[in-house]
């Protein structure tokens, strides 16, 4: 759990929810255990980035003005030849981060305040922050899930 749920999660979960609901209508006892996957290395890497940014730029970080560069995409020769119009032009990284270069800026783009972001320098804080938000999002969606934490 290193972020909030997005439309892709909703799309995938709705297909499972529909299948479970259909089986319930058939009279079967169905449990849809929705688990929250926490990948340790990406969370630890992000927490370490936040620590480093506070060490390098203070708290709250005062980033240099000249770092508003957009993350550049790597385009292979095959990608240049095959232009699938159904695919977006931005890489997943660019789509997620926009113009943000630093982890702190990414967290700010989620609407978090500096005091809240500071807590994310502890990797375990990620595990307590995001799951309740995701459970609330799932409830708003109407998902009938049995959470496995």
From TrEMBL:
Coiled-coil ranges per UniProt: none
SUPFAM superfamilies according to UniProt: Nucleotidylyl transferase
GO biological process: leucyl-tRNA aminoacylation
One of the record's GO molecular function terms: leucine-tRNA ligase activity
InterPro entries the UniProt entry points to: Leu-tRNA-synth_Ia_arc/euk (IPR004493), Rossmann-like_a/b/a_fold (IPR014729)
Family named by the database record: Belongs to the class-I aminoacyl-tRNA synthetase family.
PANTHER family on file: LEUCINE--TRNA LIGASE, CYTOPLASMIC (PTHR45794:SF1), LEUCYL-TRNA SYNTHETASE (PTHR45794)
Protein name (database record): Leucine--tRNA ligase
Lineage: Eukaryota, Metazoa, Ecdysozoa, Nematoda, Chromadorea
